[in-house]
Specification:
Transmembrane segments: 41-62, 82-104, 125-146, 166-188, 200-222, 249-270
CATH class: Mainly Alpha
Largest sheet: 2 strands, antiparallel
GO cellular component, one term: membrane
Main location: membrane
CATH topology: Glycerol uptake facilitator protein
Helix content: 55-70%
Protein name: Aquaporin pip2-3
Family: Belongs to the MIP/aquaporin (TC 1.A.8) family. PIP (TC 1.A.8.11) subfamily.
Number of domains: 1
Shape: globular
CATH superfamily: Glycerol uptake facilitator protein
Length: 285
Amino acid sequence: MAKDIEYGTDQYAPNKDYQDPPPAPLIDAEELGKWSLYRAIIAEFIATLLFLYITVLTVIGYKSQSDTKHNGDECGGVGILGIAWAFGGMIFVLVYCTAGISGGHINPAVTFGLFLARKISLARAVMYMIAQCLGAICGCGLVKAFQKAYYVNYGGGANELAPGYSTGTGLAAEIIGTFVLVYTVFSATDPKRNARDSHVPVLAPLPIGFAVFMVHLATIPITGTGINPARSFGAAVIYGKDKAWDDQWIFWVGPFIGAAIAALYHQYILRAGAVKALGSFRSNA
């Protein structure tokens, strides 16, 4: 069977060979017996817990400091810009810390996109998503345990569709926002970059964190920015109000659609996966 080998075109790294790693098996029974899988699941759980703890505290802190009904200042707190930095900065930090252990997904949409691209097995994808959702619930639970009054009074950091926006607008915001994030993940972790752009050092967590930051700037006024089903689910579970649950489907359907489009776009358009598959078929024939 012909191997898909490409060569870098960079003048600083001429003819540096490159080969795509083989696709992950759909079901990998051998993987289930390895400690590395369970270590990665624990890393995803803890990372998502920390992510929700810091970011929800930031959201609640901003709302309390800018609440004029309780001696707050309209210009007080970190503002929307600060909230966006909190989300983007935490993703940068946590992806940097966990990338070598679990891949640093911290988001079921990212896990789903990588599964569609055959980067991880089905069992790993499902276990990651469960760990991420549990971590998000525990992270929000810690916030409520430490600051229950603030948590209840200021919305618990739950994602909801803002007044004045239609369901279609909110869904589109989540689809496009998640597309930007997952597309960035694929681009930042693309092994071909080492062959093509070896002279340009790329710290993968940095562009991923910036993608989260930029999407939050654009969509906080619309949906509060989900682009992470675990983040929305964990906040809704602990907050428990009807509005958060009524809009919950938007924060699952939107991110999963956006992740699927990003995976297909990167693998089959940018990386010409369909052309390679056709070429391999013809060479075998």
